[in-house]
Structure formats: structure tokens, C-alpha cells
């Protein structure tokens, strides 16, 4: 039978929300885990991993990172990839190349990092203070912090851990001349690019034709040296990936997977704004017939869903959203529903209670009797959902 949009929706949920496994295997199965510094009630990377890792607790990725075979780096966004994926992206050839003063500063800083073994940006600033600069986000950073970020992106440094959320760096061994992108033959180069495209598809499938092209184009951040070749990579991907035309759109997924036979678990789950199930906002609207928006940077008076609304998934349906706050060590959820109220069936209420219990365990907070029932929390949700939940910005990733 021909695929239907409902088949793709079930497939998207089932393949991304796979049975819980170890942290290393979860990152490998996901391909890429996007990071974000906001904690409301936890960082995006933790909210993504808690649904896919046995016994995961907020902060586990940061605590265990130094011992894991993963790297913090820029892929299609900032986040975490396996060491194998990192190797596909490097060495990066970034233009303009460093010359003159900035190159000398970078070399001096690298020598300092090698001497110390690992450094906190504070240590670097104390040694090389050179004032403030405008960073890549349009804000203000010290010159040394901006240079550390740049050196990390270019592969001179690696993040070896975090101290209260701040990156701690160590020097990275330079890659061998055999990895020089300027001398790489075309077949090797295309194989690397295609492997990176496969990671994109592994993370976000099923992808519409437009969604596939949009994400592959974002690999220009991962491999700026090959950005002119990404158009051809899209053509090759469309030829080799599993695909079908559904409701007038072409859809793509990893070869060998069978979308028609996917069946997600009948569970309630609260999804991070950057969860792979949610990330593609156009696909979200096609699948669930309403528009989800991330509103943390929207003025409070203009918010419709809330400061950090988490889409509420029930089986393969996203019924609404929740804003979660912590007050006095207790979890305070506020819900909004697309239909204006919570479903009445007992199975949903039990499922939501179970998800809130899992969220409390993940956050390390107790007293489940303080959580609001969905019926009470849902009353007048549309009129209240613009209110900002407690939870502030962390530091930049």
C-alpha cells in the first residue's frame, strides 16, 4: 500500500524515540545531539538524552563527557557528535585564514595551553588580557574567549570538560598531512561528504525534499572547505536514500528502513524544542497541523506558548505543550492543549503522570503530590501560556 502522511508521522516518532540505551550508544544512534545553554528546567541536550538513555539525570552528559568517545563541536548546529563524525569534518579549512597579529596571538595561546595541559578561559584572560570584542552571536566577549572559540572551531583545541558550564580546553594534536583537504582526491572527499549527509538523515529522518536540502546546506558550518560541493551531495543523496512521494512531497530516509511498519510506544513524552522529532518546524506543522514556535527570545507579551514550551507527545500525536518550572525544589508544570483541554481518557492521565514522575527523577526533585492534574492545569491554558516560566539563560555553549 502507498505510504500516507500518518505512516511517516509514526515512523518519525518511533525511529527517533528508540528504546533507551547507554549514553554512548544513544549519541551514536542519534548521530548528533544539539546543545543549548538555556535551562528551563534543563538544557536541551539533557532533555533530548533523558528520553533515550537508561536512568539519565540532568547534567550526566557534562559529568561523563571526559570519558566518552564524543566531541563537542559544530555540525548543523552546536552540539555533540561521535569521534568518528568529528574526524569526517576535520581538518577544517576556514577562510579567511589567520595571518599577522591574530595568528601570532593564536600561536602564543596554543603554547600556553600546551604548557598548562588544560585551561579555563579565566586563566587565559589573566595571562593574555586584550579587551572586548563582538562575538559570533552579536554579544560581547573577551578577546581571549573569542579566540579560544575560534581555535576550537578550527581544530586547534578540543573541549575536555566544563567548569560550572564553562568550557575547559586542551590542545589537540595536529592532524597528519594525509588528512589535508587540499590534497584529498575527489572520491575520498565525496565519500566523506556523503557520510556526513547520512548522519544528518540518521538524526532527522524522514525528511521532505526541502528539509533534506536545508539541512545538508547547513553542513557548510561543519565543512566550510566543501560548501560549494553540497549541492551535488544533495543530488547524490536523493538518488541513494530510501524515498517515496506522499501527498505531493518527496520524502527521504536511511536505506533499509521500512516506514510503513513503524509503531511508536503509547507513552506521554515531553520533547525539547530542539529534539529531532520537533526540530523541523515545517514537518512538525505537516504532521500535527499546528505551528510550534520556540519563544524564549520572543518578548513576553508576544508569547503564545510560553518561555520554553515543551511539545507534549502522546503516542504519535502532539496534543499540546508544557512549561515546567522549579519552585522550592518542586516541579510546577503548566499545560496548554491544541484542542483547548486535556484528553479525558484515563490512559492519557496515567501516561502524563508517569512522564512527570520521570521528569522529576531526571531533575532530582521529589514530592509528586504537588504536580497539578492535567484537567486543572489545562483550564484557561491559552490565556496563561504566554507567561514566562521560571528558568533563565545559562552561559553560551
Descriptive notes:
- The protein is 38% helix and 18% strand.
- Among the domains are: 100-174, Arc Repressor Mutant, subunit A; 268-384.
- α9 (186-204) packs across α11.
- The protein contains 15 helices and 14 strands.
- It starts with a helix and ends in a 13-residue tail after the last helix.
- The chain is of the alpha+beta class.
- The longest helix has 19 residues, at 186-204.
- The chain is globular.
- Strands 11-12-13-14 form a four-stranded antiparallel β-sheet. A three-stranded antiparallel β-sheet has the order 1-3-2.
- β2 (70-74) and β3 (78-82) form a beta hairpin.
- The chain has helices at residues 5-16, 23-30, 44-50, 60-64, 83-89, 100-116, 121-128, 143-153, 186-204, 209-217, 230-240, 281-288, 346-363, 374-378, 381-384; strands at 33-34, 70-74, 78-82, 132-134, 140-142, 157-163, 166-171, 207-208, 242-246, 249-253, 268-270, 310-314, 317-327, 330-337.
Amino acid at each position: 500500500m502507498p505510504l500516507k502522511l500518518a505512516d511517516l508521522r509514526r515512523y518519525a516518532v518511533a525511529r527517533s524515540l528508540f528504546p533507551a540505551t547507554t549514553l554512548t550508544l544513544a549519541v551514536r544512534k542519534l548521530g548528533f545531539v544539539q546543545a543549548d545553554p538555556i535551562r528551563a528546567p534543563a538544557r536541551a541536550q539533557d532533555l533530548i538524552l533523558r528520553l533515550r538513555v537508561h536512568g539519565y539525570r540532568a547534567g550526566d552528559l557534562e559529568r561523563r563527557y571526559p570519558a566518552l568517545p564524543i566531541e563537542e563541536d559544530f555540525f548543523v548546529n552546536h552540539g555533540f557528535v561521535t569521534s568518528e563524525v568529528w574526524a569526517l569534518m576535520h581538518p577544517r579549512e576556514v577562510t579567511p585564514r589567520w595571518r599577522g597579529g591574530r595568528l601570532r596571538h593564536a600561536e602564543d595561546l596554543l603554547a600556553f595551553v600546551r604548557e598548562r595541559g588544560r585551561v579555563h578561559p579565566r586563566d587565559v584572560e589573566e595571562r593574555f588580557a586584550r579587551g572586548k570584542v563582538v562575538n559570533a552571536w552579536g554579544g560581547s566577549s573577551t578577546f581571549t574567549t573569542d579566540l579560544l572559540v575560534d581555535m576550537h572551531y578550527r581544530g586547534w583545541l578540543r573541549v575536555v570538560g566544563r567548569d560550572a558550564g564553562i568550557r575547559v580546553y586542551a590542545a589537540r594534536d595536529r592532524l597528519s598531512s594525509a588528512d589535508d583537504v587540499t590534497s584529498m582526491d575527489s572520491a575520498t572527499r565525496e565519500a566523506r561528504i556523503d557520510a556526513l549527509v547520512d548522519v544528518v538523515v540518521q538524526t532527522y529522518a524522514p525528511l521532505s525534499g526541502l528539509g533534506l536540502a536545508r539541512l545538508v546546506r547547513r553542513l557548510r558550518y561543519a565543512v566550510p572547505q566543501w560548501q560549494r560541493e553540497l549541492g551535488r551531495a544533495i543530488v547524490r543523496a536523493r538518488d541513494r536514500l530510501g524515498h517515496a512521494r506522499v501527498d505531493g512531497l518527496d520524502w527521504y530516509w536511511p536505506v533499509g528502513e521500512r516506514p510503513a511498519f513503524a509503531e511508536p510506544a503509547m507513552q506521554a513524552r515531553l520533547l525539547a524544542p530542539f529534539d529531532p522529532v520537533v526540530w523541523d518546524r515545517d514537518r512538525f506543522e505537516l504532521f500535527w497541523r499546528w505551528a510550534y514556535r520556540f519563544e524564549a527570545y520572543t518578548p513576553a507579551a508576544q508569547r503564545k506558548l510560553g518561555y520554553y514550551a515543551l511539545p507534549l507527545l502522546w503516542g504519535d500525536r502532539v496534543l499540546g505543550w508544557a512549561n515546567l518550572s522549579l519552585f522550592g525544589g518542586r516541579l510546577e508544570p503548566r499545560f496548554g492543549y491544541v484542542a483547548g483541554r486535556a484528553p479525558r481518557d484515563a490512559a492519557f492521565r496515567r501516561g502524563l503522570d508517569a512522564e512527570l514522575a520521570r521528569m522529576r527523577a531526571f531533575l532530582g526533585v521529589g514530592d509528586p503530590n504537588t504536580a497539578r492534574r492535567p484537567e486543572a492545569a489545562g483550564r484557561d491554558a491559552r490565556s496563561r501560556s504566554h507567561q514566562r516560566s521560571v528558568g533563565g539563560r545559562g552561559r553560551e555553549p
